[in-house]
Amino acid sequence: MEGRRSTFSKVLADFEARLQGAEFVAIDTELTGVDVEGDPDTFDESAQQRLEKQCRIAERYTVIQIGLTIAGRKGGGRDDELTCASYNIFAFPYVGPELGRDPGFFCQASALQFNAQHRVDFNTWIRDGVSYMNREDERNYLKTSGAKENSPVHEEKVGLLRLWKALCAARLPFVVHCPLDLFFLLAAFERRPLPKEDPKAMAMLIRQCTPKVYDTAHLHGAIGRFKRLGLMKFFEDAKARYDEIASNGNGIPHVKCSLVGDTAVRYADQNELNDELAHEAGFDSLVTAQLFAYLRAISPAVVKEASQLK
Questions:
Q1: Which of 89, 62, 34, 134 is nearest to 285 (CA)?
Q2: Residues pairing with 175 in the sheet
Q3: Three-state secondary structure along 39-103?
Q4: Beta pairing class for 63-73 and 174-176
Q5: Could you tell me where the beta strands, DSSP code E, fall in 238-301?
């Protein structure tokens, strides 16, 4: 489903209903920037340095689209068929006097050009993007305004924060194809600045939102023998390896992904849509979910060990 301000009530109701009995949620974002000029990634960086830089990026830029795919089992049971419901949501910061400030963010020309080349509608983003504020801003707003938390006016202003709260309350594992997506969501919905200088505080913040995080980029190296790391190419390679192992009759778990609801219409023939919809956040989250399903079938022990929150 595509989420805009004008359709958000319908999207939220569908999203909340599908959270029940789900196994995990795959996440992807499209962003106004992805790095800090003059500070490229290097193998010499420590984990702490990389964490600080990723947080600075998430605080500096903002999300354009949020992609979420809820993965569950057909009928809610243990059937081999994985069901996938995907959401592509335009998100724009709430603008209003209640915050006591006018939210701002940086944009990289190259990032905006990249999104434009992949058919992102910036007018839709700005005019009809679902508003949001983080939990910290919401608390301050409620304290100073005296507004009631469940009033229609309040719910409209906090917007996407309602969906984020529902997602966190479901206590589902998050699957990402790079931790940067998660940091952007934490900056958008939890607090800003992030506790980038305190890894324990960051871990606690993440644990409040999800019991486990799986990073398919990390699994790329942990499982091994994969050469291409880009999401679409990695997905193709993982599916090919899965098919090869399955054809040899090695008892590998069966993987079948069934698209449900509007997802079955929007992303009906994924092989033909790859070039057209790659880098739409909802579509990329669907690919991330399916990639994870194949990796879990190929190397269940490695995937189980690779959870980023122990």
A1: 89
A2: 26, 214
A3: CCCCCCCCHHHHHHHHHHHHHHCCEEEEEEEEEEEHHHCCCCEEEEEEEEEEEEECCCHHHCCCC
A4: unpaired
A5: 256-259
How would you classify residue 114: left for phi > 0, otherwise alpha for psi between -120 and 50, otherwise beta?
A: alpha
User: Against a cut of 0.90, is the pTM above it?
Assistant: yes
Q: What's the angle, vertex CA 3, arms to CA 21 and CA 102, rounded to 5?
A: 115
Give tens-digit pLDDT for 102-120: 889 999 999 999 999 988 9
Q: Which of 148, 152, 158 is nearest to 96 (CA)?
A: 158
Instruction: Provide the 3-class DSSP secondary structure of residue 31.
Output: strand
What are the backbone dihedrals phi and psi of residue 46, each rounded to the nearest 5 degrees, phi first? Answer: -80, 165
Length of the chain: 310
The model's pLDDT over 74-83, given as tens digits with 9 standing for 90+, comes to 765 555 688 9
Handedness of CA 288, 289, 294, 298 (dihedral sign): positive
Res. 94: pLDDT tops 70: yes
What region, left, alpha or beta, does residue 250 occupy, with left being phi > 0 and alpha being psi -120 to 50 degrees? alpha
d(CA 190, CA 165): 10
Please answer whether residues 220 and 229 qualify as being in contact, where contact means their C-beta atoms are separated by less than 8 angstroms. Answer: yes
Q: Give the chain's domains with CATH numbers.
A: 2-305 (3.30.420.10)
